[in-house]
Amino acid sequence: MDEPSKNLILPDDTPVDLDAEFRNSNIQEVLAKLDRELIGLSPVKTRIRETAALLLVDRVRKKLNLSAVSPTLHMSFTGNPGTGKTTVALRMAEILHRLGYVREGHLISVTRDDLVGQYIGHTAPKTKEVIKKAMGGVLFIDEAYYLYKPENERDYGAESIEILLQIMENNRDDLVVILAGYKDRMDKFFHSNPGMRSRIAHHIDFPDYSAEELLIIAKLMLAAQNYRFSPEAEKAFAEYIPLRMKLEHFANARSIRNALDRARMRQANRLFAGAKKNLTKIDLMTIEAEEIFASRVFKDGQVDLDGDELTEEQ
């Protein structure tokens, strides 16, 4: 569809081929990539597709000189750790870029420490530098509620929030901000900062994965690194998952990745110290049940001490 003159009034029966617009935008490629990368999360994927459809139709309307206020694209992603929020933000940045809503489509991921200074005069330069890097793309602020600490009179998070609010309002056509964190804490954050809530148009909640979905994720993670479970190891890991889900600091796919890293380490130690010297490629690829059952989850109901708690508590 050719770009019409802004002053040209097109007839109401001007044909519109949304399918062609969809194909030409190449966003189907991004949506397919999201389906491959993330197991489950049907409500999240539905919301992303709905948002993409809104933006696509909005772009077509502009080509037909149908004026409307540009949609507000700032978002809030809520859910527990390891539920795919950063991955979805990456794909959202791609969609926004392919539809022409941001210039570059890159993602800048930050936390409070990247935005807030410890001394007077440090916060504004830090926040503005991050915003400068994010311009033309998406700024992803994880655990955004830590920006607001009203109990500390000497905290400078409020200064960063004020700068962000100005940018989110005045530079909506060049920067999309996504705030992320636990749902209850984000709700409290928005309640305490109505200016921020009013600028967020899309609130997407990320559900926890089921045990069955986590097993599929585990197998995909292993395959991506040229590993695999033996049949017995797969059964053992299917037992491990619900036990791990009941313990503290569980972080969905992140906990699964950490458990697999430890299983790979145990496999390497077994192969290196074992009596079998004539190893094969299959031996190097296969995780056995003993690597899974060695976890402290089976022994005393605790998480292994080689990094899981420290990684997921942060």
TrEMBL record:
Belongs to the CbxX/CfxQ family. Residues 71-210 form the AAA+ ATPase domain. Coiled coil: none annotated. Pfam families: AAA, AAA_lid_6. Keywords: ATP-binding, Nucleotide-binding. This is Protein CbbX. SMART domains: AAA. The lineage of its organism: Bacteria, Pseudomonadati, Pseudomonadota, Betaproteobacteria, Nitrosomonadales. It comes from Candidatus Nitrotoga arctica. InterPro entries: AAA+_ATPase, AAA_lid_6, ATPase_AAA_core, CbxX/CfqX_mono, CbxX/CfxQ, CbxX/CfxQ_RuBisCO_ESX, P-loop_NTPase.
